[in-house]
From TrEMBL:
InterPro entries in the cross-refs: SmpB, SsrA-bd_prot, SsrA-bd_prot_CS
Ranges for region Disordered: 138-158
Family: Belongs to the SmpB family.
GO BP: any one term: trans-translation
HAMAP family documented for this protein: SmpB
Name of the protein described by the UniProt record: SsrA-binding protein
Coiled-coil intervals, chain numbering: none
Predominant place of localization: cytoplasm
SUPFAM superfamilies on file: Small protein B (SmpB) (SSF74982)
CDD domains cross-referenced by the UniProt entry: SmpB
PANTHER family: SSRA-BINDING PROTEIN, TMRNA-BINDING COMPONENT OF TRANS-TRANSLATION TAGGING COMPLEX
């Protein structure tokens, strides 16, 4: 059996709560239009995308809203705004697919992961997602707890 290959990218920010709050569907990889100080700040690994979301405006452009990339300490007067909207770079087909899903099916565009790919470019993994109800979240939590408890029981028994 072949060994599992290591992913060739560095994860900067991960939205771990997204899979709990949303039922994740199709995923896309989007580029980000960033300034120089934003890229340098991302390389330090301090960004957060936990409470952010993406939307497609009426001009057909996708934007990442409410993502926090802190100011670069050595950036002085050329620094950026930490929570400014950032343009997502996607193909026109992907943009059309995202906007149609949001308009017709009531889905949300949720960022899952912010990383640098093997070429050193900042990329954002986004997904079309549908919000979970409270009872769905409880059910997932019960299953997780039961599987953890089952593992404990099996380990103690055998």
């Amino acid at each position: 059996m072949a060994a599992k290959q290591e992913p060739n990218f560095k994860v900067v920010a991960d939205n771990r709560k997204a899979r709990f709050h949303y039922e994740v569907g199709e995923t896309f990889e989007a580029g980000l239009a960033l300034t120089g100080t934003e890229v340098k700040s991302l390389r330090t690994g301090k960004a957060t995308i936990a409470e952010s979301y993406a939307h497609v405006d009426r001009h057909g452009e996708a934007w990442l809203v409410n993502a926090n990339i802190p100011e670069y300490l050595a950036g002085n007067r050329f620094n950026h705004e930490p929570k400014r909207p950032r343009k997502l770079l996607l193909k026109s087909r992907e943009l059309a697919k995202l906007s149609q899903a949001v308009e017709r099916e009531g889905m949300t565009i949720v960022p899952l992961k912010l990383y640098f790919n093997e070429k050193g470019r900042a990329k954002l993994q986004i997904a079309l997602a549908k919000g979970k109800k409270i009872h769905d979240k409880r059910e997932v939590e019960k299953k997780r707890d039961w599987s953890r408890e089952k593992g404990r029981l099996m380990r103690d028994k055998g």
